[in-house]
Amino acid sequence: MTEIASAAVPKGPAARELSLQQQRVRAAFWFLVPMLVALVVAAAWPLLRTIYFSMTNTTLSSLYEGQWIGFDNYLSWRTLSSGRTIYRGTLVDPAWWNAVWNTVRFAAISVTLETVLGLLVALVLNAEFRGRGLVRAAILIPWAIPTIVSAKMWSWMLNDQFGIINDMMLRIGAIEQKIAWTASDATSMYAVLLVDVWKTTPFMALLCLAGLQMIPRDIYEAARIDGVHPLKVFFRITLPLIRPALMVAVIFRSLDALRIFDLVYVLTPNSRATKTMSVISRENLIDFDKFAYGSAQSTLLFAIIAVIVAAYIWLGKVNLTGESRS
Fold first, then answer.
1. Between 20 and 30 A from 140 (CA), which of 19, 28, 35, 132?
2. What is the pTM of this model?
3. pLDDT digits (tens, 9 = 90+) for 174-202
């Protein structure tokens, strides 16, 4: 038994390699400790406090005087003497579900458009041509502009009285009369999508370009010598090889799109057609002094984003490995 136990213990170079690996793991852990502490302070603690406040009747004027009421801010009901049951709470609030629909619709459309356009821009920027460095820098300008500045700039351009967009479209005959792009429920979502796609497509292009830069040039050279059609090269070589980078880009962009606030709040204030989950949560937290109710909506916002992103990562892994779920 002693001989078997001693034989199982690595010796010589194997023991030194194991010791080195353990040292690397310990060093990596200590390097991660400051980040984990910062994450707990900046994210985990506020999240736990928000969840706690969502189960109280706290108001903005009495943050430390709220009483525990359980899940009443999410869903509560009361049966009247007539036998009728009245339901209250975020889960039966039409305004909340309207915000959920607006947010999910905005995220799906914007992320899809930005991914397609960003990939096209990345393919152009990946080609070799004179002045490529200057074009790469210029394409990032919309993304570099702060969102508040972009929203204010576009709100002037889309103004129905003196905006340049209406003026240009009237001149070319695209419209017959001026349109209140950001004030009308019929067009306000299109205005928000336009500004968001204009601003964030360079971000997607940058991430896609990073993936394209990692593909060895020898693969394209071999495909060119074999006479493979460029379209087939894109779908058979380029797209599969950049799919991991593309998935990461979509995850990051989806996180931003699902919690969008500043663009909607500045560009289309008080519009029911564009009010998102972040906007309605902020209204209840600050404007309406329903701090606990807004905390419940913020908690649901976090839960919805977590579920959507986790589902995307799970499905993305299936697509990447080519294996089917059991």
1. 35
2. 0.83
3. 888 898 899 888 899 999 999 999 999 99
